[in-house]
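ARCHIVE CARD
CATEGORY: sequence design from structure
SOURCE FIELD: tokenized fold
FIELD CONTENT:
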């Protein structure tokens, strides 16, 4: 799954993404884009895949369902052998909700079907070129910030989101976003709604492909001042098969514990001297830098490929800004002073916290 969302205890993150708000009381409303402006030129997108006879579109890791004229939540659920309550609850809807024709609902589980294919000749390199060409070279993107025809990105709508702000975030037109998701004439979106992000069309791309390993990740809100040179940690840093490096040189003071209760911890806390370097675990793009209200001080959130998000708490002297590309091992700040000094680290898959240990072995 690839989408960006957020909220309480970072329990629903910018999908996202796409992506990002809370952890043990963190509340970061400023992360949402409230500006309704949309002036960045956008590349054309492919047509949304046609649904099957039930109205289902099957992607690699998730499915959605397209409403027909006169549909209700119950009629849609009946066509796929699902409880209406299950379908309604997953989409934050009432049982009596009547979807618009073409409106897309997310399915909570796989109901069978063939995965959609990709247009002939579609490649991530050409998609990158298409977006960059449309923007006149004013933005650059790389594969982790793109969806694929068989696996589009998804974005979970948060408070303060609008169709315009979401479209701007992903460098797509609001018209395409509305068409892919069956939005109404008012382009209204609801909190908790999962929107599919349109995939760039490469059929009219003739420019030479851009190597994704040499191209920065998309920056929806470029920093107004030049980005400071990256400080890359030495090769000796501990790494894992996933390419993650340990975020700080320290010992575990509080392990991962997803169980509810007094000792619940959605990440790992490291005991480390104040001023110790904090490093980004893997290549990505900074999704948020903000001050929490839940005891984690300044936090940095980084979005990676494969719907992975990493979170760094109690960080001081942050050297990166939202929208900035970061590289594995890059120093993004230092451990803040504390009694004792600790640094909090989380790994999230979509909106769910996961144990960071396997990523760091």
């Amino acid at each position: 799954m690839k989408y960006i969302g957020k909220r309480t205890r970072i329990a629903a993150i910018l999908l996202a993404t796409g992506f990002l708000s809370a952890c043990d009381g963190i509340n970061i409303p400023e992360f949402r884009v409230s500006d309704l402006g949309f002036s960045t030129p956008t590349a054309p997108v492919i047509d949304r895949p046609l649904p099957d006879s039930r109205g289902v579109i099957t992607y690699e890791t998730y499915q959605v369902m397209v409403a027909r004229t006169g549909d209700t939540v119950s009629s849609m659920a009946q066509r796929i052998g699902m409880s209406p309550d299950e379908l309604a609850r997953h989409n934050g809807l009432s049982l009596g909700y009547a979807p618009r024709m073409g409106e897309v609902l997310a399915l909570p589980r796989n109901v069978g079907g063939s995965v959609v294919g990709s247009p002939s000749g579609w490649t991530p390199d050409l998609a990158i070129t298409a977006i960059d060409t449309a923007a006149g070279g004013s933005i650059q993107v790389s594969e982790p910030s793109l969806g694929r025809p068989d696996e589009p990105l998804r974005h979970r709508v948060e408070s303060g989101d609008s169709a315009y702000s979401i479209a701007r975030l992903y460098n797509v037109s609001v018209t395409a976003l509305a068409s892919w998701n069956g939005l109404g004439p008012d382009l209204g979106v609801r909190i908790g709604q999962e929107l599919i992000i349109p995939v760039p069309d490469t059929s009219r791309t003739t420019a030479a492909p851009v190597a994704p390993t040499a191209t920065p990740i998309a920056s929806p809100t470029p920093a107004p001042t030049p980005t400071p040179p990256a400080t890359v940690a030495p090769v000796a840093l501990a790494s894992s098969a996933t390419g993650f490096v340990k975020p700080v040189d320290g010992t575990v003071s509080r392990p991962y514990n997803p169980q509810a209760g007094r000792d619940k911890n959605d990440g790992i806390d490291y005991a480390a001297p104040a001023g110790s370097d904090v490093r980004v675990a893997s290549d990505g793009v900074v999704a948020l830098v903000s001050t929490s209200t839940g005891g984690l001080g300044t936090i940095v959130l980084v979005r990676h490929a494969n719907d992975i998000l990493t979170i760094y708490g109690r960080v001081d002297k942050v050297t990166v800004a939202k929208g900035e590309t970061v590289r594995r091992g890059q120093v993004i700040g230092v451990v803040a002073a504390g009694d004792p000094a600790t640094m909090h680290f989380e790994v999230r898959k979509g909106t769910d916290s996961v144990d960071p240990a396997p990523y760091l072995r």
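CARD ANNOTATION: The chain has six helices and 17 strands. Residues 124-134 form the longest helix (11 residues).
SHELF: design records, drawer C
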